[in-house]
Structure formats: C-alpha cells, structure tokens
C-alpha cells in the first residue's frame, strides 16, 4: 500500500511500457498488470496547402499597411530620442546654474 509506483515511459509509437516492476514485499500483495497496449491512432490525410494569391489591390494594401507601420514606429522612436535630448539639455543647464550658485556662495556674496 505504501510502496512507491514507478512511472511509465511513453514511447514515440504511442505504446506505453513500464520502466521496471516493483517486487512485492509480502505474498498477499496482488501484482499490478500493465494496461493493454493501444494501437497508434491513424494520421489523417493532410491536404496540400494552397499558395497565397496576391492581387494588385491586396499587394497595394499590404504595401500601404507596411508603410504605415514604418511611419508610426519611426515617429515613436524620433519622439523618444527628442525626449532624451531635451532631458539631457535640461540636466546640463541645471548643473551649470547650480555650479554658479555654489561658486557665488563660496566667494561670500
């Protein structure tokens, strides 16, 4: 009852066979019989994929959509670069002002 059970190893064929059988400790323990092996399921026939046909209208729509994506991503990246540049300039300006204030305080004005 408290003996550990060894897991089974599923094979690529779909058949399941146990790795090892535990030995019963007492004679009153019933042996475990493995389940009958199942036949592998048949693979359904997969039809050949049809190739995608692009009409001139759909090709134009695809090109316009790609161009729109490029423009949006470019605008986002440029705005992020502009935000970083403005932040850098403002931090540099604050550093110059603080430096002048500290120098004035040290001179005793």
Amino- and carboxy-terminal Cα gap: 92 Å
The count of β-strands is 2
The strands making up the biggest β-sheet line up spatially as: 1-2
Tally of separate helices: 1
The major β-sheet equals: 2 strands, antiparallel
Helical residue percent band: 40-55%
Shape: flat
Low-confidence stretches: none
Strand content: 5-15%
Rg calc: 37 Å
Q: What string gives the helices and strands in order?
A: EEH
Which structural category do the helix and sheet elements fall into? mainly alpha
Please state the average pLDDT score.
Answer: 80
Short description:
The chain has 109 residues and is mainly α.
Structure description:
With 109 residues, this protein is mainly alpha-helical. The chain is 48% helix and 6% strand. Strands 1-2 form a two-stranded antiparallel sheet. Strand 1 and strand 2 (16-18) form a beta hairpin. The longest helix has 52 residues, at 56-107. The N and C termini lie far apart (92 Å).
List keywords for this structure.
flat; two-stranded antiparallel sheet
How are the SSEs ordered, and which strands pair?
Layout: E1 8-10, E2 16-18, H1 56-107
Antiparallel strand pairs: 1-2
């Amino acid at each position: 009852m408290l003996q550990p059970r060894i897991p089974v190893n599923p094979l690529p064929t779909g058949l399941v066979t146990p790795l090892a059988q535990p030995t019963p400790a007492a004679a009153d323990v019933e042996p475990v019989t493995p389940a009958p092996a199942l036949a592998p399921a048949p693979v359904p026939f997969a039809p050949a994929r049809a190739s995608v046909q692009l009409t001139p209208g759909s090709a134009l729509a695809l090109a316009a959509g790609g161009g729109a994506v490029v423009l949006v991503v470019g605008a986002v990246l440029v705005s992020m670069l502009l935000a970083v540049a403005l932040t850098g300039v403002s931090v540099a300006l604050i550093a110059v002002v603080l430096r002048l204030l500290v120098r004035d305080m040290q001179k005793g004005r």
